[in-house]
Every structure is written in structure tokens, then in C-alpha cells.
Amino acid sequence: MELKLTLNGRAVAASVEADTLLIDFLRAQGCLSVKRGCETANCGLCTVLMDGTPVLSCSVLALRAAGHHIQTLEGLQEEAADFAAFIADQGAEQCGFCNPGFVMNTVALLRENPDPTDDEIRAYLAGNLCRCSGYEGQLRGIRAYLDHKKGRG
Amino acid sequence: MLNIKTYVRVQSLEEAYDLCQKKNNVVLGGMLWLKMQRRSVGTAIDLSDLGLDQIEEDGDFYRLGAMVTLRTLELHPGLNELTQGALRESVRHIVGVQFRNLATVGGSLWGRFGFSDVLTVMLALDAQVELYHAGRMSLEAFTQLPRQQHDILTHVLIPKKVGRVVYLSQRNISTDFPTLTCALSRKDGAYTCVIGARPQMAQVYRDEKGLLSGGVTEETARAFGEDVAERATFGSSLRAGEEYRRNVCAVLVRRGLLAMEKEG
């Protein structure tokens, strides 16, 4: 079936099967930051933005994304670079596998709520699992970024 | 693994209804549960183009389209003011924001899942559902229908007069399925208690013995909690045993009633 959508600002047209999942379509398009982790819609690793809203691409049919704007980490390098280094500085990327999902969801969080409390950060990122860090590193990194931004402002 | 032969983004409810008469065709909700099944679907029927993702005020009701997401429920100011935060509380533990941006209210209720926080709270709110063919009925009546319905849940109606509402749940770990769900409401002096994740589907328990007729105190709340725990049927599952659920039920009902009085 014919699929047309906008991927990272670029119009894309492709032929897909009815049951092709968005994650598989995106990886076939070269967006390898989008990864399959749990297969149970729990880990957040496959997070992408659909019309700016974070969703699990492992649970969306590619055809459901027709006509929508999809953004992956490949298309958000500049926005992510602003805070990703702060997360790395806190040692929160031990193996790094969960990092793209965390970064994507943090982008969504900060767009929705530019000055979140620690509890709001924890609540928003609850759907991103990390098996190395215990989450404190990510929280410290985001907090450090927000404090840095306030200091700058 | 889920296999789908054909995908149709329908342009009318009539088209969706015609398609869903065939046994192996499926109406898509958020697809989160469907996707985890080993199943062959003939036609996946997508309602995304039908404008069912809106919440409207309709006289004495909030009218929710079946494709409204759980995240929309969580953030809706009017609904959360009406339910004193109970709707938000009922969905905020469900996996994560990305999941709740996909999961729909229609899918949550249509499935009548045992673990459903949404079904539990909606029963306490005395919600109604609209089916394309069968029409409007109480959610409680809908839960008693056979599961093999070739119909489409199009809307959920929440009365604007809900009284006091409290929602509580118990989980082994945050973001997991609940081991027990509990919603309580008080409207016009009548108390309704809903217990879900027993692990069977949520069920309504009313104050049949009038234990709360003299008001809620520590003693009457305890007595009603124990009464519900005794009347309800529980089972064991991977997450919790029958006896554990029964004990947690008595505690959640008591806590819920006391919280309701305290905040009210």
C-alpha cells in the first residue's frame, strides 16, 4: 500500500505492507536511532514525535502515520545537542542503548513544559526504561541543563 | 505476531460498521494490546479520519470520542476539575506519556480488560457509552454484553453531575499493570464502589447494607471496606494472590472513603 508522510522535514513516499510498523518503516528509511527494545510497548526506546507528540513507533502502523509529520533523533540533532551533553556529563549513558528514547522524550517534555520540576521530569520520563543508571543520572543531567539555561537567561 | 492483510482508513461509521461484520476484521483503537497478540487480521479498520478524538460538552454530559487518548483525559482541565483529579490519577500510572498518547478511551473500554484503570473509574463516574448500532446504554450494562459484538463504540458520555470521586490503585512497581484498582463515588448521598484488576473485570459494589448511611467515619469506612472485600470475588495471577487482593481491597476502600470525606 502507498504511504506518504513527512520524515524529518522531507516528503517521503513508499510502498509498505498493511502490517508494517512505523519503527520498521523508519529504520528502513535509515533512521537507526529508532530502536526496538521490549516488544511490549513499555521501554520507550522507539519514541518518535508524530506531529510533535511523543509516541511509541513500535505500536503504530506505518500507514497510520500517512499525512503526518514524523521526527526522529536524526532530525532533531541541534535541539538535542543543547542538553544531551549535560546528560552525558552525569554518566547517565553507561551503555547508551536507551539514550535515543530518553533524548526524544526529553525534547517533547521541554517543548511542553520548559521549566519542569524534578517530579514532573520523573513523571514524563516514566515510560523510558534504563537498566544501567537507576535514572538519577538522567535527572541530574536535565536538572543541570535547566539550571545552566536559567543562569544564562 | 500480528498479521494484517488490509488496512482501511474509513470515511464513515457506516463503512466501518459494514467492515466490522466480518469476524476477522478489527476496529483499531490505540493498537497497544492488539499489537501484542498472535493473530491474523483480515482488515484493520482505522477510525482516525472520523473526528472521534474530540471532547465536547453536550448538555448534561461531557461527550468523549472513542479515539480520545488517555493523555488527553489526563490533561483535560474540565474533566479533572469535575472528577477532582480522579481521571488523571486513574491514567497517570499507565506505562508512560508515549503510551498514553496512543491508547484510546474507546479501546480501553471496548476490551473490558480486567486490568483496566479506565473502566474502573468510568464505572464510578456512571458513564454511558454509545454504540453505532446498539445505541446508548450505561457502561455497566455494556460490560455485561457478550464480547463478540460486531458493533463500534463511538462515544463515551460522562455526566456533569458526578458528586465526589476518588481513585486509588495498587501496583507492584510503578508503570506496571495494577494488582487492584478502586474507585469510589458519592452522589446524592449514595455511595458506589468499583473494584477492578481482581484480576477479573471491574465490578460495581453498592452500599447494600447501609453501612455508610450515618456518614463516613473511621469505623464505617473500615466496615464498608471489609464488606466489599467479602462480597467481591478475587483471583490469583502472576502479580498477586487472591488473599492479598482481598486484603488490599479492604484497605483501599477504607482509605478512599476517608480521603473522599477529608477532601470533600
What does this structure look like?
The complex is a heterodimer of chains A (153) and B (264). Chain A is an alpha+beta fold. Chain A has helices at residues 22-28, 77-89, 99-112, 118-124, 136-152, and strands spanning 2-7, 10-15, 47-50, 53-56, 69-71. Chain A folds into two domains: 2-74, Beta-grasp domain (Ubiquitin-like (UB roll), Roll), CATH 3.10.20.30; 76-152, [2Fe-2S]-binding domain (DNA polymerase, domain 1, Orthogonal Bundle). Chain A has five helices and five strands. In chain A, α2 (77-89) packs across α5 (136-152). The radius of gyration of chain A is 16 Å and the shape is globular. Chain A starts with a strand and ends with a helix. The model of chain A has no long low-confidence stretch (mean pLDDT 93). Chain B folds into three domains: 2-48, no CATH class; 50-159, 2-Layer Sandwich (Uridine Diphospho-n-acetylenolpyruvylglucosamine Reductase, domain 3), CATH 3.30.465; 164-263, Enolase-like, domain 1 (2-Layer Sandwich), CATH 3.30.390. In chain B, the strands form three sheets. In chain B, strands 4-5-8-6-7 form a five-stranded antiparallel sheet. Chain B has a four-stranded antiparallel sheet with strand order 9-10-11-12, sandwiched between helices. In chain B, a hairpin with a 6-residue loop joins β11 (190-196) and β12. In chain B, α9 packs antiparallel against α10 (242-263). The longest helix of chain B has 22 residues, at 242-263. Chain B is globular and about 60 Å long. The A-B interface holds A 1, 17-19, 21, 39-42, 44, 47, 53-56, 58-61, 63-64, 66, 105, 108, 123-128 and B 2-7, 9, 28, 30-32, 35-36, 41, 44, 46, 48, 92, 95-99, 101-102, 174-175.
Report a brief summary of the structure:
The complex is a heterodimer of chains A (153) and B (264). By secondary structure, chain A is an alpha+beta fold.
Report mean pLDDT of chain B, rounded to a whole number.
Answer: 96
CATH class of the largest domain in chain A: Mainly Alpha
Helical fraction of chain B equals 25-40%
The CATH class of the largest domain in chain B, by name, is Alpha Beta
Oligomeric description of these chains: heterodimer
CATH fold category name of the largest domain in chain A: DNA polymerase, domain 1
Percent helix range of chain A: 25-40%
**For the terminal residues of chain B, how far apart are their CA atoms?**
48 Å
Major sheet: arrangement of strands of chain B:
4-5-8-6-7
Characterize the main sheet of chain A.
5 strands, mixed
H/I helix tally of chain A:
5
Compute the number of strand runs of chain B: 12
Strand pairing plus helix content of chain B: what structural class? alpha+beta
Secondary-structure-derived class of chain A: alpha+beta
- What is the chain-wise order of helices and strands of chain A? EEHEEEHHHH
